[in-house]
Amino acid sequence: xxxxxxxxxxxxxxxxxxxxxxxxxxxxxxxxxxxxxxxxxxxxxxxxxxxxxxxxxxxxxxxxxxxxxxxxxxxxxxxxxxxxxxxxxxxxxxxxxxxxxxxxxxxxxxxxxxxxxxxxxxxxxxxxxxxxxxxxxxxxxxxxxxxxxxxxxxxxxxxxxxxxxxxxxxxxxxxxxxxxxxxxxxxxxxxxxxxxxxxxxxxxxxxxxxxxxxxxxxxxxxxxxxxxxxxxxxxxxxxxxxxxxxxxxxxxxxxxxxxxxxxxxxxxxxxxxxxxxxxxxxxxxxxxxxxxxxxxxxxxxxxxxxxxxxxxxxxxxxxxxxxxxxxxxxxxxxxxxxxxxxxxxxxxxxxxxxxxxxxxxxxxxxxxxxxxxxxxxxxxxxxxxxxxx
Length: 389
Known about the structure:
Elements: H1 5-9, H2 12-36, H3 45-87, H4 89-97, H5 102-106, H6 113-138, H7 153-178, H8 183-187, H9 200-208, H10 211-222, H11 224-250, H12 253-281, H13 283-291, H14 296-303, H15 307-333, H16 335-339, H17 351-378, H18 381-387
Helix pairs in contact: 2-3, 2-6, 2-12, 3-7, 3-11, 3-12, 3-15, 6-7, 10-14, 11-12, 11-15, 11-17, 12-17, 13-14, 13-18
């Protein structure tokens, strides 16, 4: 087997995200299905209005949390598979040289779907422990008749089995595409990148550019995947954290706490993965700079400095995204509710939440950079050069 369970265990970040997605979505969707069972018992107008409100809120929270976590998990899965193939290209090249087809090798990547299955199955079943309190909180004013908890197997299919199968198929498909490289390129560990034609204009600009500035620019160009990961991690932090502040006003405290916990998990997981990968991917470059006599500050500026503006661009896009998404979804979901005389929650841009999240992001980002950079600084140069990162 090309991929072992040990390799799949490294996808603990995806497992955590899938756990959060299944946990939250099963709470709200299971409640929505169960409350539909008593819809025929609702006779008063205020009961129907309240019924529409709680079901609409459940749709909003499930769509936001589940959607964001699903997209993030897919991005992390694709990124990890790409990193795995690049770091094990020699072993994969040997298998292809021995006659193994791309499909036969890529089929072993199904095991990455285990990280999704473990997360979703745990989130699905553990959500039932919180469900009695959740149902009581949803109907704490006693407006609706008593709602019984049922195990709706359709959610087990949609939240556990289907995502696990989709992620396994996605892993195999993406691995199959990435393995379509000549055997010699895999054996020589030549990265699968497009080489841009060097022009006279490039030569003139290169002469005028200081070495460290040129290195910073070249690092970003050669590692576009890392640029995207850092921007995406910052995007997730910004959107989910600011969204959690809004949930207290749009829904209830329990919603706000759930979104906040998801935001914390998603933000720290993606941000730490992004920053630590940047550090590890540039380990050899840092080692060479140290050999040439550059100090730590110059190394950090040349390698990590280029990612800083990228992270803040991702943060800004995340801010705009969460505002527009909530605005559109609230107007769309609560449209019918307003026609029945209900009060649609007002939503505007939260400047206070933005400032708090921006300061928090800046502190966390810089601390993570310092921490990961310190690990490289303490690591012997020989060990970095032999690590194969």
